[in-house]
Amino acid sequence: MIVEKIMKKEIITLTETDTIQTALLLIQEKRIRHIPIVNHEHHLVGLISDRDIRDASPSIFRTEDFKEDMQKPLHTIMKTNIITGHPLDFVEEIGAIFCEYNISCLPIIHEKKLVGIITGTDLLQSYVELTGVNKPGSQIEVQVPDQPGVLYDLSCIFKKRNTNIHSILVYPAKESESEKVLVLRVQTMNPFLVVEDLKKEGYKVIWPSLPGISL
């Protein structure tokens, strides 16, 4: 999945000459956490967050004393060292950037212009869709040899049971460098028949499996 498929294209923006007060009211009205700052060519020049606004806002006990601070332009508080993405970036790569730099939003740039924005919530939603968790079904985890052809052999077992596979994730087996764990979301509420087939073929089923209970 590429970023273009999940990014928000209707973006609320301000300019660097708009006031902190304007940004505060916009964040409250639209219930958003980030506002990109653009110039007259719609090039990204800055970014502000609700936290930036809170830091710049006066204490509720001294509002009148610092009332003029809310009329300062956004260029006085906006972040200018901004990490950006491209519409054709892969979503999983963007997720790695979110984790590495501990950010909560990413403006998307194409030909120097702001064309979209992605938030951590957007990434979480895309993860749910990619894994198929939002669809009725069951999860099966199987430990398999890390070699070509294993996925094909597994899919044949599911095909015999007429069981559709929503998604497959792969991660290394902790106890063996020569094996992988496949996490399969399958379109069935009763996975036990296919689990039994997998075991008969010699595969180690990690889940579903309960201590003291043989499936």
Descriptors:
215 residues, alpha+beta, four-stranded antiparallel beta sheet, two-stranded antiparallel ribbon, 6 helices, elongated
Would you mind describing this structure in some detail?
The chain is of the alpha+beta class and 215 residues long. The protein is 28% helix and 24% strand. It has a four-stranded antiparallel β-sheet with strand order 6-7-5-8, covered by helices on one side. Strands 1-2 form a two-stranded antiparallel sheet. Strand 1 and strand 2 (44-49) form a beta hairpin. The longest helix has 12 residues, at 120-131.
Summarize this structure briefly.
Helix content is 28%, strand content 24%. The chain has 215 residues and is an alpha+beta fold. Strand 3 and strand 4 form a beta hairpin.
Mean pLDDT: 91
Number of strands: 8
Estimated share of beta-strand residues: 15-25%
- Major sheet, described briefly? 4 strands, antiparallel
- Quaternary status: single chain
Terminal CA distance: 36 Å
Strand order of the largest sheet: 6-7-5-8
Query: Which shape, going by the Cα principal axes?
Result: elongated
Give the % helix. 25-40%
* Tally of helical runs: 6
- The helix/strand order is HEEHHEEHEHEEHE
What class do helices, strands and sheet pairing give? Answer: alpha+beta
Cα Rg:
25 Å
Low-confidence stretches: none
